Amino acid sequence: MAATKAQTKPAEDFGQMNAVPDARRLTRRSLLLATTAMVGLSALPISQLAAQVLIEPLPDQTVIPPLPHPAEEFISSIAGSILAVAVSDATADEKKARFQALLIAHAHIPTIAIFSLGQFANRLADEHRQPYFELVSGYIARIFVTHSSNLKGRSVEVTGSHERSEKETLVHSKVWFDSGRALPVIWRVIRTDVGFKVFDVSVNGIWLTFQQRTEFVSIIRKAKGDLNALFAFLTRNG
Amino acid sequence: MGGQSRKTLAQMLWRSFGLGRLGGILAIAMLVMAISVPASYADDVDDYDDGSSALDLADPLEPVNRVIFTLNDAVDLVVFRPVAITYRAVLPPPVRLGLANFLSNAATPITLANDLLQGNSDRASTTVARFFVNTIAGIGGINDVASQAGWERHTEDFGQTLAVWGFPSGPYIVAPILGPSTPRHLVGRAVDVLANPWTWILWDNSFIEASSPTLATMVSAREDALDVLDSVRESSPDYYTTLKTLYWQSRVSEINNGEIVEDELPDIPDIR
């Protein structure tokens, strides 16, 4: 009886409200449509489409996009090579050698190495500079190999740049992963007599050269200012 | 109210942080010590500081911090890391991702409140849109369909709000169990616990039940950081210093909403 009541009541209500002959079927159809819409929404295309329409402006045929900054082209040219090393199946030593070659070619190792000494930079004797630079490039390459399993991105997209000064430009990019996740990566690029060189890289808000400086300074501080402790560490871990 | 009124604020904070009484006492002691550091001692330590950038965080309590860090690390190696490894082994990636998404969605009220307190209406509207899209279309927040639609996830907390309002961070503190922090961050965490609806929804439940959102968040976050922390531990010359700098850089980035504040960047030496 209760079930019969429940089935008949809506028809009575609709009958009082208006003259639609089969209002109960209309109600079921509405429910069916609403359910279909919910399922469709959960499969995402509606919200995605709406977001694209709302967020992305319509293309304007009359606007000519500005040429990318040369520093952006520089990063575009090297980022793919770095990812290729990270995702390759080479041995750790091969990866290290390949990444160290990239570093020497495209990063300003002397600036990175001197910066990493912090307030102890003036203690580096001239005759130790070149050996120290080589130790630093080897150490960075080894760290890269250690972390390379976390850097297996699919592609790098350069998204823009900002020239801080005549010498320095920040280049913004995203590393895309197979999962669809994007990691923001920002490059501090300096202009030198022989072209652009990378000074620092920010991965998800972490500046790597700055990070390295705090670690190097910590080693030197523990050794009461003796740079030989740092050289020994770099020799062991490079 | 009855028995409920017998619970003190401190008990609630300890419980919500997932700390025991000892942890809470140590955390408060650390906070008091941090606030009362003699200026002369801080000045002495500054002589060692690189001091060239806002990315440097003063650490006048380093000896105490290192002791607590060692204890935390031992607890991590014995408890949290094995739990995270087991969690990863037992649950497949889609389930873990779904749980992480659900927890993130459940924390929306905190993010929204702080978006508004920071006067950031654009991010607040994104937070609201994400919450409704993910709750309805993402089945209670398990699927992050909002991100796929272009509304990227962000988090805010009261510590960030205090920073935006201009409150200084204070020195570096390693809090028991909670790990890297600052006095400003600790105060922010306490306020977020009070503002979190889950604190009040689970108010009358047992310790385990009431702590379950915090514990689930900790396990999920620890699992997410397993690979990175393992490789940092393996490669770092000084794990304490590395985590301190990672924490502070990450925190500065969160406060700046991922934007680069150019004044905070250290100068590049002019080397030929």
Tell me what you see in this structure.
The complex is a heterodimer of chains A (238) and B (272). Chain A is an alpha+beta fold. Helix content of chain A is 57%, strand content 17%. Chain A is globular. Mean pLDDT of chain A is 79; it is low at 1-26 and 36-51. Chain B is mostly helical and 272 residues long. In chain B, 64% of the residues lie in helices and 2% in strands. In chain B, strands 1-2 form a two-stranded antiparallel ribbon. In chain B, helix 4 crosses helix 12 (207-224). The longest helix of chain B has 29 residues, at 62-90. Chain B is globular, with a radius of gyration of 20 Å. The chains are: A alpha+beta (238), B mainly alpha (272).
* Class computed from helices, strands and strand pairing of chain A: alpha+beta
> Helical element count of chain B?
14
Residues in β-strands, percent of chain A: 15-25%
Order of helices and strands of chain A: HHHHHHHEEEEEHH
| Straight-line distance between termini of chain B | 72 Å
Radius of gyration of chain A: 30 Å
Going across the biggest sheet of chain A, name each strand in turn: 1-2-3-4-5
Tell me about the largest β-sheet of chain B: 2 strands, antiparallel
| DSSP helical segment count of chain A | 9
Question: Average pLDDT across residues of chain B?
Answer: 83
The oligomeric status of these chains comes to heterodimer
Q: Please, how many domains of chain A?
A: 2
**DSSP helix fraction of chain A:** 55-70%
Number of domains of chain B: 1
Strand line-up across the major sheet of chain B: 1-2
- At the first level of CATH, the class of the largest domain in chain A is Alpha Beta
Largest interface, chains and sizes: A-B, 52 and 44 residues
Spatial shape of chain B: globular
How many strands in all of chain A? 5
